[in-house]
Amino acid sequence: MGQVEVVDSEYLFQGRVIISETDLKGVITYANRKFCEISGYTREELIGQPHNIIRHPDMPKEAFSKVWSTIQAGQIWHGLIKNLRKDGQYYWVETEILPSKDNDGKVIGYVAARKAASRKDVQETSEMYQIMKEKEL
Questions:
Q1: Quick one: pLDDT at residue 8?
Q2: pTM for the full model?
Q3: 3-class SS string, 7-53
Q4: What 3-state class would DSSP assign to 111?
Q5: Under DSSP, is residue 1 helix (H, G, I), strand (E, B) or coil?
C-alpha cells in the first residue's frame, strides 16, 4: 500500500505514553492528547469509534483474539501492536491493556497504555506476526 513506517517513533512519543479507554465492546471512550497526535485523528474522530479504527491490516486476527480472551478473563495483556495512522503511515507500540473496574469490582471497560516499541522487539514481533498472517490465508 506504499505505507512508510514512522521512522523516529522515539521523537514522536517524546517520552510520553498513549492512553485510551474503551467500553466492554472496544469502543473508544477516552483518548489522550498524545494518542491523537500520533494517530493523526482528533479526539472527536476517535471517541465513539471502535478501537480497531487504528488497526493495521498486517495485524493477525489470532493476535487480537489473544488480546480479547486475556482482558475479558480479567487479566492484563502486554505485547506489541502495529497501528495505522490516519495518513496511512504506521507505528509500533509496546502495549499494556487492563480491565477497568467499578467500585464493586465489575469490569466496565478497558484501559490501554502504549509507548514506542524498541527496534529489536519490532523485528522479532513482526516476523512472528507475518507467520501468523500467512496461516490465515
A1: 45
A2: 0.85
A3: CCHHHHHCCCCEEEEECCCCEEEEECHHHHHHHCCCHHHHCCCEHHH
A4: strand
A5: coil
> In angstroms, how far apart are the furthest CA atoms of the chain?
48
Identify the bridge partners of residue 5 per DSSP, sorted by sequence position: 90
Task: Return the DSSP state at 86.
Answer: T
Domains of the chain, earliest start first: 9-136 (3.30.450.20)
**Residue 100 is placed in which grid cell?**
477497568
Q: How far apart are CA 38 and CA 43, in angstroms?
A: 12
Question: 16 or 108: which carries more pLDDT confidence?
Answer: 108
- For residues 4, 87, 17, 5, the Cα torsion angle rounded to the nearest 10 degrees is 0
